[in-house]
Amino acid sequence: MFDLVHSIQIAAPPAKVFPLISTAQGLAQWWAADVTEVEGGVELGFFNRDTVYRLKCNASESPLLAEWLCETGKEWACTRLLFRLQPVAGGALVRFAHTGWRADTDYYVSCHTVWGALLFRLKGAAEGKSPGPLFTKDAMA
Questions:
Q1: Domain limits at 60?
Q2: Within a domain: residue 138?
């Protein structure tokens, strides 16, 4: 199995970051404009819903942990998105992992790059200077 791992320091307390990683409304502020709540989780639509990822809340411990299980997607199915928040001086350290990839494919590598950009969008949203989600309904910003 392969894992994508990132960390970023945010100048906001975990309690402010947590809703951004654990709710549909929060995810829509930095990840994707097309986010809808579904029973037990969320759906994120990309490129006019040509791609839809359904995420189920696997674990949530406010304000320090949010874990999502990816239920759909050719390469995303059965992977997990794990956000751990740690209080630090001046804010929060976010340790992120997208775990359980079956192969080191070109898509896996491109997702690694995209997750880096997404975490900077999360940082901006938490710090009140967000340019919005990385993915609009029909394109990547």
A1: 2-126
A2: no
The residue behind tokens 């992992």 is 97
Give tens-digit pLDDT for 71-103.
999 999 999 999 999 999 999 999 999 999 999
Residues with Cβ within 8 Å of residue 84, at least 6 apart in sequence: 64, 65, 94, 95, 96
CATH of the domain at 66: 3.30.530.20
Q: What are phi and psi of 99, to 5 degrees?
A: -105, 160
- The answer to pTM > 0.85 is yes
Q: How many separate domains does the chain show?
A: 1
CA distances from 42 to 106, 109, 137 (A): 26, 24, 15
